[in-house]
Amino acid sequence: DADVTQTPRNRITKTGKRIMLECSQTKGHDRMYWYRQDPGLGLQLIYYSFDVKDINKGEISDGYSVSRQAQAKFSLSLESAIPNQTALYFCATSTRERYNEQFFGPGTRLTVL
Amino acid sequence: KNQVEQSPQSLIILEGKNCTLQCNYTVSPFSNLRWYKQDTGRGPVSLTIMTFSENTKSNGRYTATLDADTKQSSLHITASQLSDSASYICVVSAILDSNYQLIWGAGTKLIIKP
Fold first, then answer.
1. Residue A59 CB: number of other CB atoms within 10 A?
2. What is the pLDDT of residues A1-10, one digit of tens each?
3. Residues A37-50: pLDDT tens digits?
4. Which residues in chain B are contacts of A92 at CB distance < 8 A?
5. Phi and psi (nearest 5°) for B82?
C-alpha cells in the first residue's frame, strides 16, 4: 500500500465551483505539505502544517485553504475554482529531522474549465 | 532573490550513454541540496542529498557533485537505462528564521531512447 495517498487522482470542474483535494499518510510523519506543479515551473508551496494545530501559508496560498483533520490527514480546498488553478497538485510529508526528505503522493490532476 | 536554475531543460540520449545534468543556485544561507527523480505521472522521489561539506556522493549509477563556492551542482548518470527516463529536479534548502525554506528548480526532462 502507498504511504501517501491522494484523492481524487483526476478531477475536472467548472469555474466557481468549490473543490476539495484530500491527502492521507501512513508514514507517521508530523509535517505535511501541499504543492502545485505547472509545466516548466518548479513546485510551488501552497500550505504546510508542522502538526495538527499548526497551519502556515506558503508562497501561493491565495485562493486556497487547508484543513489538518488529524496527523494523517491534510485537505486542500479551492473555494471558488478558476481556470488558472488548473495544475498538478501534490501532497508531501516529512519528519522533523534536519535535512528532512519529503515523501510525495501520486498527485491530483485538476482541470478547471 | 533565492533561485534555482537547471540545465538543460530537456535532454535525449541513447540507452547506455552517460549524461550530466546541471543545477545553479543563488540561495542564501545555504543548508543543503537535494536531487529528486520524478517519473511521469508520479510524485518526486529523493535520489541524494548534498550538504555544505560534501563534494561528491554516489547512489548506484547516479553521482551528484556540489561546488559550494560557485554554487553549482551536477547529477551524472552512468550507463543510462530506459527506466532513467524522468524529470530530475534540484531543490536547495535555505535556513530562514530557524525554518528551512525549499527552493525548487523547474527540472530537466531526460528521455532515454533504445
1. 10
2. 569 999 999 9
3. 998 888 999 999 99
4. 43
5. -55, -35
